[in-house]
Structures are given as C-alpha cells and as structure tokens.
Amino acid sequence: MGFDVWMRHFKQGGLFVIVGLAQLTVDTGVFISITALGVPVAPANIVGRISGASLGFWLNGRYTFADQGQPRVSPRHLRRFAIAWTLLTCVSTLIMNALSAHFDLHKVWSLKPVVELVIAAIGFVVWRQWVYR
Asked: If DSSP codes are grouped into helix, strand and coil, which group holds residue 28?
C-alpha cells in the first residue's frame, strides 16, 4: 500500500471517530433520557441508535467516505447501511439487554458507550468495505 492510501485511511479513520463521537453522544443521551423515564432497555437502545444513525449516515456519506469530494449518500448506500445497521443494532441490543439483567440502570448507562465503541470498530470496517463502496 502506498503512502496516499495510508493517508486516506488515516483521514477516514479520523473523520469516522469525530462523527462516531457525535453519534455516540446523541445515541447515549437519548438512551439515558428515555430509560430514565421508564422505557425498557431494549427499545430505548433501538431508539437511541436510530437517533445516532440518522446523524451518522449523512455525515459519513457526505464527508468520511466521500469519493474525491463527491458524497456517497444514495439509495443504494442507504439500503446497505440499513442492513448493516440493523444487524449491528441487534447485537448491541442483545448485549445491552443482557447487561440490564445483571446490573442496575446506572451501571448500564455507564456501559452503553463501551458497547457502542466496540460496535463502532466493527462498523468502520463494514461501512468502509461495503456500505459506502
């Protein structure tokens, strides 16, 4: 791999982290807010992830994985995103639900960002190699 390719990967990784932190903030904020109101963990996780994903799909397609400045936000990208996001959300929700069976809600709140960071690492590869290709 040439230097240009490494620099592109480095730039994409950096942008992905910035977008991911914004997504994580929205996702976790929504999750905490609605579970504090009494919504069960599993549906709250899905609503939180939808909130973060709405922001992330557009930002990643427009900036992170743009091709020579051209956004990659098409119906094809959205379909692929929806498939990958649904699978990753199922994994995230199963984990969060299992955690809620073993820990109190405050501990689950603190573990949410950790779970999502692991899911994001997997997601980066999926977004880069399949969704925004």
From this structure: helix
The tokens for 48 are: 């939180």
Residue 101, token pair as written in the block: 């069976």
Tens-digit pLDDT string for the chain (133 aa): 677 777 777 888 888 889 989 999 999 999 999 999 999 999 999 999 999 998 888 888 888 877 777 877 778 878 888 898 899 999 999 999 999 999 999 999 999 999 998 998 888 788 778 877 7
C-beta pairs of 121-129 under 8 Å, 24+ apart in sequence: 122/88, 123/84, 123/88, 124/13, 124/16, 126/84, 126/88, 127/16, 127/60, 127/64, 127/65, 127/81, 127/84, 128/12, 128/65
